């Protein structure tokens, strides 16, 4: 029996990498259900992420993130866009590796900066030097994204459609790589 396209696909990467945007489109293309852990948290709490950070601190947000990840990673036939910090907690990395095929959307800091500099919904990028913060997060987290990923896709300066095609090609190559 040849390898199928993975049942669950998880997207990881820094803020602005395209996890939410690409995830939605990949799910549509593959006939899978799309979820975004940030969106689930906002829907269930009734408030935006910055408000959770204000009221519960980053720690409170991370607890919600882990429980949401645990719940949705074990669903069936999903594409799950995680938040950029999901890979910080070792238990989150273990969940991602255990329940799905993990794709790291990698982009350079300048690209990420261009995509996030005016965004008010990312508390970690408020009232800071955004480029310097993204640089710091990249250096801290790139090793964690890399160790967790089954596939790394560079998304810098490429239209989303090209990235979708790259991912589909990689997934279909998986499928045919094990055919007898
Ligand atoms: N490959 C890309 N090229 C240009 N802009 C992109 C690309 N991927 C995402 N974007 C844009 O960058 C912003 C952040 O994308 P988003 O999907 O929210 O990223 P993430 O969920 O990884 O933080 C959005 O405005 C989105 O339209
Ligand atoms: O990098 C991070 O720690 C975060 C990334 C955000 O998600 P996106 O990566 O979708 O922006 C969101 O989970 C929160 O603001 C924290
Ligand atoms: Mg997102």
Automatic annotation (TrEMBL):
Keywords: Amino-acid biosynthesis, Aromatic amino acid biosynthesis, ATP-binding, Cytoplasm, Kinase, Magnesium, Metal-binding, Nucleotide-binding, Transferase. Mg(2+) binds at residue 20. Pathway: Metabolic intermediate biosynthesis; chorismate biosynthesis; chorismate from D-erythrose 4-phosphate and phosphoenolpyruvate: step 5/7. It is found in: Cytoplasm. Its cofactor is Mg(2+). Substrate binds at residues 38, 62, 84, 141. ATP binds at residues 16-21, 122, 158. Binds 1 Mg(2+) ion per subunit. Catalyzes the specific phosphorylation of the 3-hydroxyl group of shikimic acid using ATP as a cosubstrate. Belongs to the shikimate kinase family. Monomer. This is Shikimate kinase. It comes from Methylophilus medardicus.
């Amino acid at each position: 029996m040849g390898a199928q396209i993975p049942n669950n696909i998880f997207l990881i990467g820094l803020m602005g990498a395209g996890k939410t945007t690409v995830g939605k489109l990949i799910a549509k293309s593959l006939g899978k259900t799309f979820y975004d852990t940030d969106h689930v948290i906002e829907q269930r709490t009734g408030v935006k992420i910055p408000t959770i950070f204000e009221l519960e601190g980053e720690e409170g947000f991370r607890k919600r993130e882990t429980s949401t990840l645990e719940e949705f990673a074990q669903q069936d036939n999903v594409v799950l866009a995680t938040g950029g910090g999901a890979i910080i907690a070792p238990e989150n990395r273990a969940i991602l590796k255990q329940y799905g095929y993990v794709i790291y959307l990698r982009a350079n800091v300048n690209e990420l900066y261009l995509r996030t500099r005016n965004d008010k919904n990312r508390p970690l990028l408020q009232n800071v030097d955004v480029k310097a913060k993204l640089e710091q997060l990249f250096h801290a987290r790139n090793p964690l994204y890399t160790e967790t990923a089954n596939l790394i896709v560079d998304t810098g300066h490429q239209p989303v459609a090209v990235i979708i095609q790259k991912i589909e090609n990689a997934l279909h190559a998986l499928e045919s790589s094990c055919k007898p």
